[in-house]
Fold this protein.
Amino acid sequence: MIDALTTLLSSPMMQRSLLAALIVGLTAPIIGTYLVHRRLAMLGDGIGHISLTGVALGWLAGAFANVSPADSWAIPGAVIISLLGAIAIELVRQSGRTSGDTALAMLFYGGIAGGVLLIGLAGGTSAQLNSYLFGSISTVRWSDITLITILGAAIVILGVGLAPALFSVTNDEDFARSTGLPVRTLSLLIAILSALTVAVAMRVVGSLLVSALMVIPVAIAQLGARSFRSTMGIAMVLGVLICICGLSLTYFVDLSPGATIVVGAIGLYAIGFMIRAALDHIRRVRRLRVARAHNQHPERSGTQ
C-alpha cells in the first residue's frame, strides 16, 4: 500500500493531476451550492457544452498561430466562451422573453455541435476531443495548473466571501432586492463563477460531466446538513475526497477520470441516501412506540 502511494505521488503527471483535482473538488461544490439552492443545477451542463466551442476556438487559433502543442490555448478559449455563454443565458433568463430551459437547450446543442465541428477543422482527433469531453490526467500541464489555480482562487474568494449576499439572491430575489442588494449584478456573478468553475474542472472531469461535480457533493451534503453554510462546507470536503480518490484509482486502473469520479460520487450519494432513509425509519418507529406507550398508559404519563 505504501509503495503504491509512493509511486503515485512520485509521478510528475499525478502530482499535476492531484493538484488540479484538489482545486476542482474544492471549488465546484461552492458554486454548485448556489445553483442547487436556486434550482439551476443544469446550468453547469449548458456551460460545459458551450465551453467545448471555446476549446475548439482556442485549438483552432493555436493551430493557425503554429503554437506547440496546438491545444495550448484551449483552456483560455474555454474560459472566454464559457463566460460569454454564462452571461448570455443569465441575461436571457432575466429578460423573461425566453425561458431558462430553452436558453439552456440552445447552449446544449449549439455548444457541442460547434465544438466538434471546429475541433475537426483544427485537425484534432477523436482521442484528443475525448480528453476534453471526459477528462484526461495525462493532458494536464503546469500551464493549466497555473490558470486553474488563479481561477480557483477567484472562485473561493468571491463564492465564500460574498456568501451572505449570494445566498440572499438565490433564496429570494424579491427580498434581496428590497434590502438594497444589486440582484442583477449578483445573479450575473453567479453565472460568471459557474463558467469559471467549468473551465477549472474541464481537465479533470471533462466538459460533459463537470456539472455532476458541482451538484452531487451538494446533494450528498444536504442529506445531513442543517444550514446553507454547513451544506457548502461539507460539500467542499466531499468534493475534494471524491476527486482525489477517483483520480488516484484511474492511475492504477485504465479508466476515464471523469466517469470514475462521477460514478464514485453517485455511489456515495446512494449510500448516504440509504443511511438517511434508515435513520428516518428508526426515528419514526421510536416516535410510534412512544405514542403507543402514551395511549396505553395515559394516567401514568399524566401523573409524571
